[in-house]
Design a protein that fits this description.
Blueprint: E1 4-8, H1 14-20, E2 26-30, H2 31-45, E3 52-59, H3 63-71, E4 77-81, H4 86-100, E5 103-107, H5 120-130, E6 134-136, H6 142-151, E7 156-160, H7 171-174, E8 179-182, H8 184-187, H9 192-215
Parallel strand pairs: 1-2, 1-8, 2-3, 3-4, 4-5, 5-6, 6-7, 7-8
Helix pairs in contact: 3-4
The structure holds 6-hydroxyuridine-5'-phosphate (BMP).
EC number: 4.1.1.23
Protein name: Orotidine 5'-phosphate decarboxylase
InterPro entries: Aldolase_TIM, OMPdecase, OMPdeCOase_dom, RibuloseP-bd_barrel
Length: 216
């Protein structure tokens, strides 16, 4: 099973993405890529690519503005910050995405050191009210990732922070994530296809290891 979401924050050659897609679940279209190529350029880069497209446009605004942004580029999923709250923001975005069939992922906790989880209970309430399809939660902090999996047992959890940010491939999967979001380790590699295969293998080994540990 493919457990990698390729974070495209920089351009990788189209033929490489075509080959990589066999080993990944989705691509996450990053804001830097969009600024670099424009909407037309991103669509061109990904034409013929069959995997899901998750738009990471750093959404944290009023509903009207977020809807204008997501209307400009097609995707299968859209990530938004939970901290912006429900009324006039996420409620409007969720209604809009429901009408287009796109899936909403809410970001409940971040992967960098400075993130503060002390307001997690508020973000959890927001997620319970909005009922997103999925959640973004960090690979880098196992405690909060496990808690989020416990609080949202049936939602898809996608997890950044693997590779350059320090988490090892498969660790987040062992802590409750469904997919690991990986950018620089792949797109900065001289051999992105080889790197994706290597990461997939490491993920599988790690999953077997942690399943075994739980069984003991
Ligand atoms: P990388 O593997 O190169 O660190 O990329 C991680 C990706 O996930 C980047 O696109 C980054 O913006 C995003 N991300 C993150 O790293 N931490 C978060 O908490 C939320 C993110 O969206």
């Amino acid at each position: 099973m493919n457990r990698i979401i390729l974070a495209l924050d920089e351009v990788i050659q189209r033929d490489k993405i075509m080959q990589i897609q066999e080993y990944i679940y989705a691509v996450k279209i990053g804001y830097p890529l969009l600024l670099q190529l424009g909407v037309g350029g991103v669509n061109e880069l990904l034409s013929g690519v069959k995997v899901k497209r998750i738009l990471d446009l750093k959404l944290a605004d009023i509903g009207n503005t977020m809807i204008k942004i997501v209307s400009k580029i097609p995707g299968d999923g859209v990530i938004a910050h939970a901290f912006i709250g429900v009324e006039g923001a996420l409620d409007e975005l969720k209604r809009f995405l429901d009408s287009t069939g796109e899936k909403l992922y809410l970001l409940l906790s971040m992967s960098h050191i400075g993130w503060n989880d002390s307001f997690y209970d508020y973000l959890k309430d927001v997620a319970n009210e909005i009922k997103p399809y999925g959640i973004v939660a960090p690979a880098t902090r196992s405690g909060i990732l496990q808690k989020i999996r416990h609080d949202f047992p049936s939602l898809e959890i996608i997890s950044p922070g693997v590779g350059v940010q320090g988490s090892l491939p498969g660790d987040a999967l062992c802590n409750g994530a469904d997919y690991e979001i990986i950018g620089r380790s792949i797109y900065s590699s001289l051999d992105p296809i080889g790197k994706v295969k290597e990461i997939s293998k490491l993920q599988e080994e790690r999953i077997l290891e942690c399943k075994g540990a739980k069984g003991r």
